[in-house]
Amino acid sequence: MSRAFCIPGVVFLFCALVLSFLVSVSLPFLPALDIVRTHFGDTQDIQQFVTNSTGIEEVRADLGSRSACYYDPKGDRTCLPTGHAYSFEIHNQKQSVTALVDPSWTRGLAVHPVATGVTFLALLFSLSTHITVTLIASLLSFLAALLTLIAFAIDIALLGLTRHEMNKLAVGAHTITAPGFWMTFVSLILLLLAGCTVCFGRRRARMSGATTTSYPMKSGGFFSRFRRN
């Protein structure tokens, strides 16, 4: 592959891999890289109206790809058991209203680690200079981009559901996107750039490897063809 296209493609894939991996790990191991985050107004309102199922007064709830965490007014964090398709719920003080995010909405977050794995394979294939292997790297990059796009759509759906459920509590809940949400979006852009870069590099390498064979033409009149050499 042309060196001018090879190096940027590898860099794009490497950066996308790092971002995708961090989002896949997310909570509870990397608390700052959650996907959706909800704040519940000032502390007094939370103490008066909202407690979770374990009795911890709520000020914030974070959702990651593998778990959800609660923060009390003192900043102490309590996370749900790590696992696939987790669920969490928050009740008001009178137990009359429940904000629930069930496993059917968090199950799709498993697409994040799958996209990370495909991105890793694309990075490995992009290190080769063989034209066929770089074609596979380009296809894997676009496949990883598709999976990341699906994961990003799931994140958007989770954001909408969480915002709807938290607003039911009527305690001034404010649901926003978290760093993991935007890291997924950046990873998607990088994967698209990587796929195009690797594809263009392969095309340029194929064109530069092509050779044109020319045949010499003899000049002369009509009678020159009857001459003896």
Fold and architecture overview:
The protein has 229 residues and is of the alpha+beta class. It is built from six helices and eight strands, in the order αβαββββββαααβα.
Mean pLDDT score: 79
| Biggest sheet character | 5 strands, antiparallel
Query: What is the level 1 CATH name?
Result: Mainly Alpha
What's the overall geometry? Answer: elongated
Question: What is the CATH architecture descriptor?
Answer: Up-down Bundle
Helix-strand category:
alpha+beta
N→C terminal distance: 47 Å
- The CATH topology: Butyryl-CoA Dehydrogenase, subunit A, domain 3
Number of helices in the DSSP assignment: 6
Beta-strand content estimate? 5-15%
Q: Portion of residues in helices?
A: 40-55%
Task: Output the radius of gyration.
Answer: 28 Å
Number of domains: 1
Strand order of the largest sheet: 5-4-3-1-8
- Unreliable spans are 42-58, 210-215
Using DSSP, what is the number of strands? 8
Q: Can you write the helix and strand succession as a string?
A: HEHEEEEEEHHHEH
